[in-house]
Amino acid sequence: MKYKSTRGQVSGIGFTEALLMGLASDSGLLVPESIPDVRPHLQAWRKLGFVELAQKILPMFIDDIEPDVLHRLIQESYATFDHPDVVGWKQLDDMVVLELFHGPTLAFKDVALQLLGKLFEHVLGERGQKLNILGATSGDTGSAAIAGVRGQKNVDIFILYPHGRISPLQELQMTTVADDNVHCISVDGSFDDCQSLMKTIFADADFKAKYDLGAVNSVNWARVMAQIVYYAYASLRTDQAANFAVPTGNFGNVFAAYLAHQMGFPIANLLLATNENDILARFFQSGEYSRGEVHQTLSPAMDIQVASNFERFLYYYFDQDSTRLCEFMSEFNTTGKASIGGPPTDDLFTAVAVGREETLAAMAEAKDNYDYILDPHTAVGYAAIKVQVGGLSAPRICIATAHPAKFPDAVIEATGITPTHPSLEALSGLPVRKGHIDANIEAVKEYLAARV
Length: 452
Fold this sequence. Notes:
The protein is α/β, with parallel strands linked by helices.
């Protein structure tokens, strides 16, 4: 399998090169040159566990790591999860909650980033190279990425996060990590500011090369690739084509579901659920992609108004026409908005924005009706199914993105219950390490240059 850029200036590169490149050198996003067709395998794969299924799917995208080595890396990646089959399956009447929070940092990002850490360690060790990872987080990516690479000799990781705009527990999961290769950087600004800083630095080819920069955000193809597996796994556990409600801010999670559908897994509909930061919901309702003000909400990991992975979807929506994509993205970057002229004709997606009161009501309902505690991000997906679009056909699968104990304030407000988890309780009182900078390019570059 070879990879190419959505911007059209990079093609024919192997998986390991794509892994280390992160953002393509033409500032586009890497995608596979072809999408595998899995339909001949579906029946044989229905009884496979999560790890076994990953060992079938991922080699379709990775052909430059020895198969036995890749199988071992996959096995090791998910040995850190506290669920016997990696992901949980909770039936709530006619809805399933797919629990993706059983990894070391209690967030769905662990599913991809534990694997990504193992891949980095193997590839860099084979090549004798060093990598300095630069990432931006709205909450969960940072801690999951740190957990995936902490202590590695060939990797240093620098995580930008918006000051005061992630939950205190999310911050502690990053800043209490004592390993010398971990660097947490609080930025005066929003997550969109952090993400823009990261992408601008990656676009500086000389700086990127000089400091051996790599990416763990969902701009890195390997992140999206790994997330395909849980949609495949869930879709094969139902008798009819599955309908997924996906809380999303950066479009990476739901794009993995889109790819799973394109590969032939039995998926009928993708319900894209946003909070008040509704740029994606507005696009699928109107065809206009327009930046708005970033609102702080109960679900901070989704407080995003520029979805970095959306470019991959547009590339396929534009029939892989890089020229048309570049024109669209240029208009958006210049004016803050761009349009395809009307709602998308792709009927795979439904989209809805869920507000604060609906989120709290969903959390209260799940507790009252099922004695089940939702985190506020998962509650956005739950509300999208139960409140906004109750007509979504069965089977309905809500993606659970985080353990509720990571967001105790929202859970207490909605249910009166204080959620706990031993790994989070253990963070109390630990020393923290973090930097603090202004939201400008030179500040980030100086911070990196002084520590690489």
